[in-house]
Amino acid sequence: MSTLELVQTLKKDNGRVWNVSWHPKGESFASCSEDKSIRIWAKDGSKYTNKVVLTDGHKRTIREVAWSPCGDFLASASFDATTCVWDKKNGEFTCNVTLEGHENEVKSVAYSSNGLHLATCSRDKSVWVWEVAGEDEYDCVAVLNSHTQDVKKIVWHPSKEILASASYDNTVKLFKDDVALGEWVNSNTLHGHESTVWSIDFDATGERIASVSDDKTLKIWKEYPPGNPEGIPTEDKESAWKCVCTISGHHMRTIYDVTWCPLTGLIATACGDDAIRIFKEENGCDPNAPTFNLVATVERAHSQDVNCVSWNPKTPGLLLSCSDDAEIKVWKFKE
Amino acid sequence: MNLDQLENENPNVFNKTEDRLITAQEEDDNVVDEFDRREIFDLIRDINDPEHPLSLEELHVVQEDLIEVDNHKNVVNVSFTPTIPHCSMATLIGLSIRVKLLRCLPARFKVTVEVTPGTHNAEHSVNKQLADKERVAAALENFNLIKVINQCIANRSKG
């Protein structure tokens, strides 16, 4: 019997905590909240404590924070329509870059795996790709207007320059830099969810995506490259993506976030029914119709909606969560 | 809110319900008093209609029968009925109900505010917007919008 054990509860903020993000080294993390602050937490002995509070970057709710792969930069996306990039060059964290351009709330921000690109998305329906041109220099290289509604979340492929986005228009879209055309293009659109897709995550290989939605389901999508042995048709030498698994009946309300652990393969979800759930793929199942079993549930993980879950990149089974109840919790998964 | 032309010039106006009679048991602090639909109704019945100098109760936009409360599951569901099926104020009315309940009820409650099925042309899209907490949170940081909502939910002198 597997369990998710509470390790520590952290509370400093006065309002809803929207997002938590592990530093790539896995020893510290950042959180952001509707009180317009970013906090950085690190271990003091065996306990995490709040080390830094950043309050002067944004005028409205901070929706998401993301570290660069090198761990030297922290980007923050805010309802004030800007994205800030913070660094520690002067000894303490300061905001040295403010990216403007979105018409309204920026909802998600992420660095590509090689750190050369940054992507942002907004209620203005667009996804922007920025090139990290130099120290404190970001150039917008693409404004992608493929979605018909708010874009809620963006994530990068774990090793390639492929970007995935989730939207209020019920779809997930994939974008990549088409070298022949010399521009970023929408290569795939994943239809299947019946309401807003709130979050997505790639698995360790980047060949599968997990998505979660207001329709209360978790879906697993698989890439079928051209010439795939299964005979799934592909177009224009582009991979096809197919939903290979829909997990329903477990979540009672909107699912706000999903995280797919690159170390263990475990999937965790954050739900509006206050619960955190862990899913594990059955050993030896058919990759074209995999089975994911619910292996652990914490019913009242928080006293209100759980907004975000995140697996530690270095320590297997170490999970962070945050909630409308203003708390951040550290969990340990045990088989 | 001042509009040059009213969308619904001549709405039906209904009588208000009597004030709730408070029983001795309800005043006894030793008795656990759970939320019921009448209490939820009392919280939202006096919200002002954005178009008319009337309350949502007087226009039958909210009705006690269209409220569900489950204290054990911490669920409150409110259906509201726009006076006309093309009412452009539906989202604003729904948002006012939602904000009033968010401010008054304990945070443990999951509040759902939806259009009464079949009473509005854009029912699905209004419901989807009202259910999206990120959009609601962003709307509440919009100074002009929150001013209008506060006007709708401000207490009116009873008379």
Automatic annotation (TrEMBL), chain A:
SMART domains: WD40 (SM00320). InterPro entries: CIAO1/Cia1, WD40/YVTN_repeat-like_dom_sf, WD40_repeat_CS, WD40_repeat_dom_sf, WD40_rpt. The lineage of its organism: Eukaryota, Metazoa, Ecdysozoa, Arthropoda, Hexapoda. It comes from Brassicogethes aeneus. SUPFAM superfamilies: WD40 repeat-like. Essential component of the cytosolic iron-sulfur (Fe/S) protein assembly machinery. Required for the maturation of extramitochondrial Fe/S proteins. Gene3D superfamilies: YVTN repeat-like/Quinoprotein amine dehydrogenase. Belongs to the WD repeat CIA1 family. Keywords: Repeat, WD repeat. WD repeats lie at residues 10-41, 55-96, 99-132, 144-176, 190-222, 299-335. It holds the Pfam family WD40. One of its GO terms (cellular component) is cytosolic [4Fe-4S] assembly targeting complex. This is Probable cytosolic iron-sulfur protein assembly protein Ciao1. One of its GO terms (biological process) is iron-sulfur cluster assembly.
UniProtKB/TrEMBL annotation, chain B:
GO terms for cellular component: cytosolic [4Fe-4S] assembly targeting complex. SUPFAM superfamilies: Fe-S cluster assembly (FSCA) domain-like. Residues 38-115 form the MIP18 family-like domain. GO terms for biological process: chromosome segregation; protein maturation. It holds the Pfam family FeS_assembly_P. Belongs to the MIP18 family. This is MIP18 family-like domain-containing protein. It comes from Brassicogethes aeneus. The lineage of its organism: Eukaryota, Metazoa, Ecdysozoa, Arthropoda, Hexapoda.
